[in-house]
Specification:
The protein is α/β, with parallel strands linked by helices. It folds into 5 domains: about 190 residues, Rossmann fold; about 180 residues, P-loop containing nucleotide triphosphate hydrolases (Rossmann fold); about 110 residues, Orthogonal Bundle (Arc Repressor Mutant, subunit A); about 100 residues, Orthogonal Bundle (DNA polymerase, domain 1); about 110 residues, no CATH class. The chain is about 45% helix and about 15% strand. It is built from 30 helices and 22 strands. The strands form 6 sheets. The protein has a 7-stranded parallel sheet with strand order 3-4-2-5-6-1-7, sandwiched between helices. Strands 8-13-12-9-11-10 form a 6-stranded parallel sheet. Strands 18-22-21 form a 3-stranded antiparallel sheet. Helix 21 packs across helix 23.
């Protein structure tokens, strides 16, 4: 068996992702490797495939118990025997793991770095042929990494003690040049092959919202994406608890996670999230490392993280399956104050004084970089990639930075003059307020009201001047010191003396327009017909039933991406099932026939149904390339004959009307209708509206709505809180149906024009 055969048999893939094969070949050739690959690029396959082919066992050093368990479960499901040793096991269980490993049962053994110095493990290592040592989350070994763990320094001592030096491979998703060098040096890698596959995650849509009232935004987003799983990160435990309570009271299936909770509660909530019992989780950054949940559709940062490394690692937990997903940062100036406070109270008790001072300076610099991301008007993706050393020339077209440019060359000169007058003594806020001509006692006390530049930009808005200063800092005309009380000083300004030099800032286009652009992101389900989507939904339910039977997360059975490909190809025998992306021999033997029977039953009930785009089309290749051979799905409508299928009742909830409309439509290539779409229609008709009540938007019927027979009803949430819903009579139901039948002609007219 060679590496490609192992990939197909055990993982179900016909070809490697970019960079994977190069890494596998290097390891099998006996070379040490440093691999830097973005989340979702398939790092684990790069050491799991060689582990199958090498003669001995592979030791995988992993920082968290949850990470080990999430890796070992799917390996055993695919027919690869693997074990782990950590503090969750009893001594007798650990002894059993050692015995099975010595008997040759395991090809991979996951251990925590703290375990490497224990007598039991060193004794085991002396008696075992270790072919490879793999260091996962390798950035933890660098003191300059965002997750430095002193226990990782024990790894090199363990390797040095082995009778025969194994191949050493190190993997991480985020690493600056400095951290990359640390990984090679601290691990004493021998002429390592360094492979950087790139940091870009093309399926992620990046967005920054500068807002103060974050709770309504989060609530609105989740209600607009009711079927999506997501993570909401908060900077403090207090914020986690408050936001969790708010969402819970609104009837949202939400879990929470932070270090102030008991181990049992954290484990239960993490499992609820992974097993899709509670698809949304609110957490501090204590949550997430090693969480291999593939169908996370959004990651919202309620507070700004302390570094770009942290942000990209956390945001990268969205869309591991390659599907379009959202990464949203909610930013306010208070976030900077919170992070400065947290950094000032960081524990440096185990670090030498000189190193602590240097780390503090670098922490301050990282925070500045993160603030720059929150405030930039440039392409967000390019800002991230350039931080990690990838230069991009053009905007990505898949972030919320759609902008118009304002020439502020003359304004820039006033900013430079103000900084010159300040002689590098003051920070950003003093410079801004001086230029804007603010009437502040502090400015009079400092004497900046006597500057020639005092009030020089009073005709500009504060946001425009702030953006301009950010532009000058980014271009090097100014620089900001990295100490605790940072000040702004002169940089390289010679270029401004050239009359051809222009300085401009970028102002965002309409916020709603940006959201519409975000909503156009491609998803693999676009390759499914209406029948294919129905089959996909049936297969998901079957996957969930199997997962509950076996006590494993649903994605371990098959990922969403595999089920989409399965729905499109509708395999009816073993040969065609094994052509589905992600179905290997081991998973087929365990689950394949059950899914074949389900597909056969669906096709029997729906004779002639076409579930995919084209017969015999390689759907998985289409998903990888992002290309679609058919047009985008259009607006929802009903065909005239659909109206007779609607089951009218005396009263319906909005969600029930939505479900009926989606059930009866025979239109092909149309988007699903959502309750928010119907509510918007009824708002335009003057039947309903939303009112603020105790800080929440509550739907109510208008006088016209009352005359139509729309009534209010009280519901009780799981937390015992009452909330109001509206119920709609058959006369309104009929109007809604007639509206979407009329929509058919409008849609056809638009299609004819284009």
């Amino acid at each position: 068996m060679d590496a490609r055969e192992a990939l197909k048999i055990y993982f179900g893939y016909d070809s490697y992702k970019p960079g994977q094969e190069e890494i596998v070949d290097a390891v099998l050739a006996g070379e040490d490797v440093v691999a830097i690959m973005p989340t979702g690029a398939g790092k684990s396959v790069c050491y799991q495939v060689p582990a199958l082919l090498l003669s001995g066992i592979t030791i995988v050093i992993s920082p968290l118990i949850s990470l080990m368990q999430d890796q070992v479960k799917p390996l055993n499901e695919t027919g690869i025997h693997a074990g782990y040793i950590n503090s969750s096991l009893t001594e007798s269980q650990i002894s059993m793991v050692y015995a099975r490993a010595l008997d040759g049962v395991y090809k991979l053994l996951y251990v925590a770095p703290e375990r490497l110095e224990s007598y039991g493990f060193t004794d085991f290592a002396d008696r075992m042929k270790i072919s490879m040592v793999t260091v996962d989350e390798a950035h933890c070994i660098s003191q300059w990494g965002q997750d430095f763990r002193p226990s990782y320094l024990k790894i090199v001592g363990f390797i040095d003690r082995l009778r025969e030096r194994p191949v050493v491979s190190a993997f991480t998703a985020t690493a600056t040049e400095e951290v990359k060098t640390d990984i090679s040096c601290v691990l004493k890698l021998q002429n390592p092959k360094v492979i950087v596959t790139g940091f870009d995650r093309e399926n992620l849509y990046f967005e920054v919202e500068a807002i103060r009232k974050k709770d309504p935004y989060v609530l609105e987003y989740i209600k607009k994406h009711p079927d999506d799983s997501g993570i909401i990160y908060c900077a403090t435990r207090k914020n986690v608890d408050a936001l969790h309570e708010l969402l819970f009271d609104e009837g949202i299936l939400v879990a929470r996670y932070h270090a102030g909770m008991s181990h049992e509660d954290r484990k239960e909530n993490q499992d609820d999230f992974i097993y899709d019992r509670r698809p949304v989780i609110v957490a501090t950054n204590a949550f997430g490392m090693g969480i291999d949940k593939s169908n996370v559709r959004f990651v919202i940062h309620y507070n700004m993280p302390q570094s770009m490394e942290n942000y990209y690692q956390e945001a990268g937990r969205a869309g591991r399956d390659g599907e379009a997903s959202h990464c949203i940062l909610l930013f306010s100036a208070q976030d900077i104050m919170i992070n400065k406070f947290l950094l000032e109270h960081k524990d440096f008790s185990d670090i030498p004084h000189e190193d602590a001072l240097l780390i503090k300076q670098r922490d301050a610099k990282r925070l500045q970089v993160m603030e720059g991301y929150a405030r930039t008007t440039d392409c967000l993706r390019n800002y991230i990639l350039e931080y990690f050393g990838e230069k991009r020339e053009k905007p990505c077209g898949n972030c919320d930075r759609e902008f118009t440019e304002i020439d502020m060359t003359e304004d820039a000169k006033q900013v430079i003059n103000c900084v010159w007058e300040a002689k590098g003594r003051y920070g950003l806020n003093i410079i801004l307020r001086t230029l804007l001509g603010a009437n502040r006692a502090r400015l009079k006390e400092l004497g900046t009201t006597d500057y020639k530049t005092y009030g020089a930009l009073k005709n500009r808005s504060e946001s425009e001047v702030r953006l301009l200063v950010g532009r000058l800092l980014l271009d090097g005309y100014l620089y900001q010191t990295a100490d605790q009380y940072s000040v702004i000083r002169m940089g390289h300004i010679d270029a401004l003396k050239d009359p051809n030099t222009r300085i401009s800032i970028r102002v965002y286009k309409d916020r709603e327009l940006r959201r519409q652009i975000a909503g156009q992101s491609k998803r693999s389900t676009d390759i499914l017909t209406k029948a294919g989507y129905e089959l996909f939904d049936i297969l998901r339910k079957q996957r969930l039933a199997i997962a509950r039977e076996e006590g494993i997360p649903p994605y371990i059975v098959f990922s969403d991406k595999t089920l989409i490909d399965m729905s499109a190809k509708a395999p009816q025998d073993k040969v065609t099932m094994l052509r589905v992306s992600g179905v290997g021999k081991a998973r087929y033997d365990k689950y394949g026939e059950r899914f074949i029977w389900t597909i056969a039953a669906f096709l029997n009930d729906n004779p002639g149904a076409v579930t995919g785009m084209e017969e015999n089309q390689d759907v998985s290749e289409m998903m990888r390339s992002g290309k679609r051979r058919r047009k985008h799905k259009g607006p929802f409508f009903l065909n005239p004959e659909d109206g007779d299928k609607f089951v009218y009742k005396d009263l319906y909830l909005l969600g029930e009307i939505r479900d009926e409309l989606n059930r009866i439509t025979s239109a092909n290539h149309v988007k699903k209708i959502f309750g928010t779409d119907i509510f918007k229609l009824l708002t335009q008709a003057g039947y309903v509206e939303e009112q603020q009540l105790d800080g929440r938007l509550v739907p109510i019927q208008t006088e016209t709505g009352l005359s139509k027979g729309i009534i209010s009803a009280e519901k009780i949430s799981k937390a015992g809180t009452s909330y109001t819903v509206l119920m709609y009579p058959s006369v309104v139901q009929r109007e809604i149906v007639e509206h979407y039948i009329e929509m058919r002609d409008r849609v056809k007219d638009e299609e004819a024009k284009t």
